[in-house]
Amino acid sequence: MTDKTEVQDEIANEITAAARIARDAAERAEGTPEPGDAKKWPLAKIGIGIGSAALAAALLYAARSRKND
Q1: Residue 42: what pLDDT?
Q2: What is the DSSP letter of 69?
Q3: Domain that includes residue 49, residue range
Q4: Transmembrane region positions (predicted)?
Q5: How many domains does the chain have?
Q6: What is the pLDDT along the chain (69 residues), one digit of tens a residue?
């Protein structure tokens, strides 16, 4: 009969320990942004900038080959 109460006490201790860990983790996480709440990158502006740089590089390359003629 004593074995059952010891097992029940161990289970209760494990449950309370898990609840304590979960509560502590939740308290530490307060105030941190959610993964989807991050500031959005201006992808369109970045894409235009990269495209412009690629176009400028292509024009410089083309102009370089004409100078040798």
Answers
A1: 66
A2: -
A3: 42-69
A4: 43-63
A5: 2
A6: 556 778 777 878 888 888 999 999 888 888 776 666 556 666 666 777 788 888 888 888 887 766 555
SS3 readout for 6-57? HHHHHHHHHHHHHHHHHHHHHHHHCCCCCHHHCCCCCHHHHHHHHHHHHHHH
49 and 32 in one domain?
no
φ, ψ of residue 41 to 5 degrees: the values are -80, 145
Cα torsion for 60, 64, 67, 69, to the nearest 10°?
-130
Token couple for 52: 């412009």
Residue with tokens 């010891």, as numbered in its chain = 6
